[in-house]
């Protein structure tokens, strides 16, 4: 028994017009200051005006939002009493919006108590609308929330199927202004979601399709979107790919690559997409050693390789390394600029954090503590994994 | 040799698997709670069974079959019908997915448990290593 959940997805050019049809009184827009400066909050506000919905902006979301930030946002929501919460931005504002919404609805909970097992009984006060402005996180589609515990310097994976958005507006125009580096980082996140979801132990028939499509779109259009940000066809397909991959991983899960990337992000503050894109070839080589069949499927479907078995998995890993090189994205932690002495000093914490990350529960091949340590070491040196 | 589930011998073998697993030792190194597992009656096994594990810093200090739910006050209670235990022990059902779909019912401090997903995984990985005989009962 399992579930497949999805928001209503409004996509394509002009999708933002769907806001004009919303029913409601007040909206709280959860975002960050950059999006205010870029004028994207104003664009959303214009549409809210057409729907006769008042709004207030909470723009205090930082990259890797903290527990304290979402508690503050929930307090603002409680004071303003909106009937819509709008997450506008990349993964950080959208994850913060989900958490703020849950805490607004359920003030009896602490963020760490939002878990997949409890019943939340949401939508008594407000509904949730997501508007992604980057093409990567899939956070508009997924129910997962990543917050940072600033005391312990670790990322917390929380969430519950009930906190999935009501509506996601996937309008490519909002992502058109992403600079090349951000386009590359977020695009690698799309690939990591699609590949890890398709090959993890929790893969399922319903999630497989969106993952395959997302992977093929990203391999095809990511280099174009990075090379030429004005390539609107590439932008639109990457924006759709991000939500397709979100549809996949929200209904299966991700795996070792995300566990390692969360640990790297918390310790070295590497952007998530860059970190997970970097470690993914290594985790593919590790995971495919015992059963490469699903990696071979992916390699065939995305045109990486017609080979079977481990050769196909290796081809997929090499294709990812080549893509990182083409995007000027690091292929090793050393290339990412992490000092060797600092890496070695942090290695025990990295392994501990990744070992206890929630993404690890769906690994198709679960690494031992020592294997995980070696994975980090290989990723540091850029050495393909042979164990 | 296969151990009959549920039985005192099976529980002792589970304890042995936990105490010889380096991955459980590592994943559970900060875990200090005991757990009562309840096998609820169903058509395949029409009786309750209760087994107790005292898990402390990566080791199992005590494991035994209990006569009833009140014999020990525990930090956590995990309960499900016998046939669901059978699927978990034989690897047909992912225990974490079973928790998420509430097929495994959990009582206790969820917030604490969610900090140790790998410990929970390794605890259930050890269950699967116990050679188990379910008798002639079939779900």
Describe the overall structure.
The complex is a heterodimer of chains A (387) and B (139). Chain A is α/β, with parallel strands linked by helices and 387 residues long. Chain A has helices at residues 33-37, 40-50, 67-80, 91-105, 180-199, 205-227, 232-251, 256-268, 272-287, 293-301, 309-326, 340-355, 369-381, and strands at residues 8-11, 26-30, 54-58, 84-89, 127-132, 144-149, 154-159, 167-170. In chain A, helix 4 links the parallel strand 4 and strand 5. In chain A, helix 8 crosses helix 12 and helix 12 (340-355) packs antiparallel against helix 13 (369-381). The two termini of chain A are 34 Å apart. The mean pLDDT of chain A is 96. By secondary structure, chain B is of the alpha/beta class. In chain B, strands 4-3-2-5-6 form a five-stranded mixed sheet. In chain B, strands 1-7 form a two-stranded parallel ribbon. The longest helix of chain B has 12 residues, at 8-19. Chain B is globular and about 40 Å long. In chain B, 39% of the residues are buried. The mean pLDDT of chain B is 93. The interface between A and B is medium-sized, with 23 and 24 residues.
End-to-end separation of chain A in angstroms reads: 34 Å
- Strand residue content of chain B: 25-35%
| Proportion of helical residues of chain B | 25-40%
Q: How many beta-strand elements of chain A? A: 8
Strand order within the widest beta sheet of chain B: 4-3-2-5-6
Shape assignment of chain A? globular
How many helices of chain B?
6
Strand content of chain A: 5-15%
| Helix percent band of chain A | 40-55%
Secondary-structure element order of chain B, N to C: EHHEEEEHHEHHE
Largest interface: A-B, 23 and 24 residues
Q: Please state the average pLDDT score of chain A.
A: 96
DSSP, total strands of chain B: 7
What is the radius of gyration of chain B?
A: 14 Å
Oligomer: heterodimer
Biggest sheet of chain A: strands side by side, in what order?
A: 1-8-5-4-2-3
Biggest sheet of chain A, open or closed, and with what strands and sense? 6 strands, parallel
Number of helices of chain A: 13
Determine the structural class of chain A based on helices, strands and strand pairing: alpha/beta
Through-space gap between termini of chain B: 22 Å
Mean of residue pLDDT values of chain B: 93
